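User: quick one, fold this
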Amino acid sequence: MKVTIVGMWNSFPNGTEPTSGYLLEKDGVRILLDAGSGIAGGIQKYIGIHDLDYIILSHYHHDHAGDAEAFMLARRVARQLKRVDRNLKIYGPESGAAAKTIRRMKYTTFLPVKAHKAYTIGPFRFEFHRNEHSVETYAIRVTDNDGAVCVYTSDTCYRGSLVRFSFGADLLLVDSKLYEGFDGKVEGHMNAEEAGRLASKADVQQAVLTNLPHHGEREVLLDSAKQHPVGKVMLAEAGMTFEI
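Assistant:
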């Protein structure tokens, strides 16, 4: 599978670089993990907005789902103009006002996700892990039909169950909002040391620190993560691609 980081900032876009959004592609199937602020514009650097038929939302905080409505409106216009004949399919948590909005939108089909339930879309199999965060939130494990695995933690504090969920991944996109020394459990996020610990214990091939903060010297995040024996570890950048 091909994984493109469309955006990876925490809270709000950094200039023209969006918040969270990760594009998966294989065999002509394109799926977006999260649709944060700025993603509807950012994705058009890589594909047409009407070429995307599936979005999976980890939760409904604005930096992960703020542009979902933009995608839904784009699909409504495209259907009305008869440019496409397919509904936009959005998978996400069942709780929250945003889920009700998605359900009501014409030309969009809402499919609720649950932990311990697998979903297959084209060459991809999706599994979900309930995170510890301030709202219903899921980490997402994606396995393609050749056995390649990408895990996206989304927002969560460190949990031992995430090690099992992420184990053996070829690519781990891991929440690293906080610098070492901050208590991630209070905010429902991981600090960079915990992100590195997760990558090490899960024995992943490469880890990418995402959900990045706007303040501080971000290279320090890498130093903290690398305290643990890990393979490749790097900071996420908009436009970065991986073939796994």
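User: anything notable?
Assistant: The mean pLDDT is 96.
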